[in-house]
Design a protein that fits this description.
Layout: E1 8-12, H1 24-35, E2 42-48, H2 51-54, E3 62-63, E4 68-72, E5 75-85, E6 94-100, E7 111-112, E8 115-116, H3 120-138, E9 144-148, H4 154-160, E10 173-178, E11 186-187, H5 191-195, E12 208-209, E13 212-214, H6 215-222, E14 225-228, H7 231-236, H8 241-244, H9 248-253, E15 258-260, H10 288-306, E16 316-320, H11 329-339, E17 346-350, H12 355-367, E18 372-375, H13 380-389, E19 392-395, H14 405-411, E20 415-418, H15 422-427, E21 434-435, H16 441-455, H17 458-469, H18 476-495
Parallel strand pairs: 1-2, 1-9, 2-6, 9-10, 10-14, 14-15, 16-17, 16-19, 17-18, 19-20, 20-21
Antiparallel strand pairs: 3-5, 4-5, 5-6, 7-8, 11-13, 12-13
Helix pairs in contact: 4-6, 10-13, 11-12, 11-16
């Protein structure tokens, strides 16, 4: 067991709530920024300062008085830092720094119109260097730099190469978290020059990945410890190319440095007892009858809002997700087309994604107006209402590193129906949800039908609901594992001296 000591932790991420968000990465980074500070000496979060952040009038941002310079490919770029205290941190030194540079001051965090920004390599090279130079500039000497996903992958590489002899980072260990190994940050070899990394590092054992510079690989090779967002996903990504996406061999070689930690959820944000978006609040202490009555009111309100047939006794399936192939939206579309004509059910889907699936779902909405609605937008209040109103929550993902939707659904008393993969397999059991009998349209339709039949057995259904809502997915359960990982990384770094 590593020796425990107070740690100074720097979180580096490309997105984090409440500043900006495209996916679960933002929830995790933002939650760590809130729940870690009581347990560490100091904490700092570094983010790019996107236009989306500047446009938020509610955020109170201050400027660090002076700019500083970042060396890039034979030139220097001027960068300034904005800062904001991290909400809920409760400590004087818990601050978020935003890297302000013209390359981030545009629409879209990573791209627009379904296309990546063509200069993403240069933007996130600049960000990686700005994290390190920015830490020096504000005098924050970290024991741990915790990097998240490919956008920060060069930071561990810089620490082991360009900054190897920099006394400021002499005791700094790096942790790199894979949130989704499918997103790798692979760029042409010319990006090596922009990065200013030693040319000898561009080889198969280090940074080269099928002829490209891989930012993700940089994090996997050079970090002191690798983490990912569930124990099962940590195993899956070592098994073969379908799960490891080309990095399975590297991860097997580093399996003793690989840790899987289940994400938590913000139990204050996701609290049916206090949720301001619900027609009727309910808490876990109510009797089954009172609990069911409150959920029924939420269902009736959503049905009325969306123009569905108003019936509290009709079982409702919900889904809040990107509507793409990874999330199994093709299976959902096909299974609903099979079940809607003959079964007493309703379904509500919320999210954006592949236009092909949106067109198919629109046709279903027209064909079954009283039973089915698909809403193609980001709508946070409506998402809360779907969690509360639905009886069963669909997540038939082809892969799911952790997943937050199934945890939120259980907290709201909606039983998750999931594929047995990644974090879904770590968090859902047959005692508090449903697993696909097989990963296919037929398998999904069969499992949905099983859920519909069980719904008629109120006692059995209520037992599953109670098991689901009694499951603790709070961040307090995960923070201890993160702290242990940090201590291990710090101890290994100290042992190098």
């Amino acid at each position: 067991m590593p020796t425990k000591s107070p740690l100074r932790v720097l979180l580096a991420a490309s997105e984090a709530v409440p500043f900006c968000k495209t996916g679960g990465l933002a929830d995790v980074a933002g939650s760590l920024g809130v729940y870690l500070p009581p347990h560490v000496e100091e904490l700092t979060l570094f983010l790019p300062c996107y236009k989306a952040i500047k446009d938020q009038k509610s955020l109170k941002l201050s400027s660090v008085p002076k700019d500083f310079l970042i060396p890039l490919a034979g030139r220097v770029e001027r960068v300034r830092l904005l800062w904001s205290d991290l909400a809920g941190a409760g400590r004087r030194q818990s601050r978020g720094y935003l890297v302000d540079h013209p390359s981030f001051n545009r629409e879209g965090l990573y791209g627009t119109g379904g296309q990546d920004h063509p200069d993403n390599a240069q933007r996130f090279i600049l960000f990686a260097r700005s994290v390190l130079e920015g830490a020096k500039f504000v005098g924050f000497r970290p024991d741990i730099i915790h990097c998240h996903d490919w956008q920060t992958g060069l930071i561990p590489a810089y620490l082991k190469t360009v900054y190897h002899l920099d006394a400021f980072f002499r005791r700094t260990a790096s942790v790199f978290t894979i949130h989704n190994i499918a997103y790798q940050g692979n760029f042409p070899p010319a990006a090596m020059e922009d990065a200013g990394l030693p040319v000898e590092e561009f080889r198969m054992e280090k940074l080269e990945f099928f002829g490209q510079l891989s930012f993700l690989k940089a994090g996997l090779v050079y970090s002191d410890i690798i983490s990912t967002v569930s124990p099962n996903y940590a195993q899956e990504i070592q098994t073969g190319p379908d799960k490891g996406r080309g990095f399975e061999g590297l991860l097997r070689c580093r399996q003793h440095d690989l840790v899987g930690i289940i994400n938590g959820i913000d139990t204050k944000l996701w609290d049916p007892g206090q949720d301001p978006h619900l027609a009727c609040n309910y808490n876990h202490g109510r009797s089954p009858a009172k609990y069911a009555k409150a959920k029924a009111q939420c269902k009736l309100r959503l049905q009325k809002t969306l123009g569905l047939t108003e019936s509290a006794g009709t079982p409702m399936f919900g889904m809040v997700s990107r509507m793409d192939y990874q999330k199994g939206i093709d299976l959902v579309t096909e299974a609903l087309a099979e079940l809607l004509p003959g079964e007493n059910l309703q379904a509500v889907l919320l999210g954006v994604g592949d236009l092909r699936y949106q067109a198919q779902l629109n046709e279903l909405s027209k064909k079954f107006p009283g039973q089915f609605r698909a809403i193609f937008e980001f709508n946070d209040p409506l998402a809360h209402q779907i969690y509360a109103a639905s009886d069963c929550f669909l997540m038939p993902s082809r892969f799911e590193p952790c997943g937050l939707g199934q945890m939120i659904a259980m907290r709201y008393g909606s039983l998750p129906l999931v594929a047995k993969t990644g974090g879904l397999a770590d968090t859902v059991t047959e005692e508090k949800g449903f697993m696909l009998s097989e990963f296919s349209t037929a398998g999904l339709a069969k499992t949905m039908t099983h859920a519909l039949r069980l719904y008629q057995d109120h006692a059995a259904w209520n037992r599953l609901v109670k098991n689901a809502i009694d499951t603790d997915f709070s961040w307090e359960n995960s923070i201890g594992k993160y702290l242990e990982m940090y201590q291990t990384a710090a101890s290994r770094k100290a042992a190098e001296k």
